[in-house]
Write a structure and sequence with these properties.
heterodimer, A: mainly beta, B: seven-stranded mixed β-sheet, 11 strands
Chain lengths: 115, 114
């Protein structure tokens, strides 16, 4: 069975600095999808970024980028120029295309951006 | 207007009561999902539906049932609520066009079972 592990329960960063959140996963599949979701205090789950495993190029969305290391089964999220609005819980998630629809989530990392 | 809506946003009920949580979407997606989130844990899948006639159990379906009334509506029922069903419940929809299925979540329903 697939598992997703986020080893950092809590992190903090100063406003305007860069922070990296870690995520590792375990799977025997060769193709799959990976996601980062953000959950601010409003509790809404918001898609941040997504990556297809067969694409070697790391995904980027504005200040958010990933470092996808397929051999190491690692999918870290880098937030550049951190803003107060980035304060949230961040979840890494995995999906197999064949079993489409079944998102498997990590435990989450709470990020605090300090002024 | 929000693409995925959930009602109610907050609910307090008593042990043994039957309650229904409702989800509606205007995204036109065929696939819909129900998840629950417990403190310190990520979301876990309860039920999912790929179209009106296709409903499937997820990881933690015991004690829950669902109804897909239309493409746009997917309801979750707790037939006899118990305290350990106290959680945050999310509905999600997904689109598979373009090959990368991505799920979009509603705002969540916070449920407290006394």
């Amino acid at each position: 069975a697939q598992t997703v592990t986020q080893s950092q329960p809590e992190m903090s960063v100063q406003e305007a600095e860069t922070v990296t959140l870690s995520c590792t996963y375990d799977t025997s599949e060769s193709n799959y999808y990976l996601f980062w979701y953000k959950q601010p205090p409003s509790r809404q789950m918001i898609l941040v970024i997504r990556q297809e495993a067969y694409k070697q190029q790391n995904a980027t969305e504005n200040r958010f980028s990933v470092n996808f290391q397929k051999a190491a089964k690692s999918f870290s999220l880098k937030i550049s120029d951190s803003q107060l609005g980035d304060t949230a819980m961040y979840f890494c998630a995995f999906m197999k295309p064949v079993a489409a629809g079944k998102l498997i989530f990590g435990q989450g990392t709470t990020l605090q951006v300090k002024p | 207007d929000a693409d995925v809506t959930q009602t109610p946003r907050n609910r307090i009920t008593k042990t043994g009561k039957r309650i229904m949580l409702e989800c509606s979407q205007t995204k036109g997606h065929d696939r819909m999902y129900w998840y629950r989130q417990d403190p310190g844990l990520g979301l876990r899948l309860i039920y999912y539906s790929f179209d009106v006639k296709d409903i499937n159990k997820g990881e933690i379906s015991d004690g829950y049932s669902v109804s897909r009334q239309a493409q746009a509506k997917f309801s979750l029922s707790l037939e006899s609520a118990i305290p350990n069903q106290t959680a945050l419940y999310f509905c999600a929809t997904s689109d598979t066009t373009g090959g990368l299925e991505t799920q979009y979540f509603g705002p969540g329903t916070r449920l407290l079972v006394l």
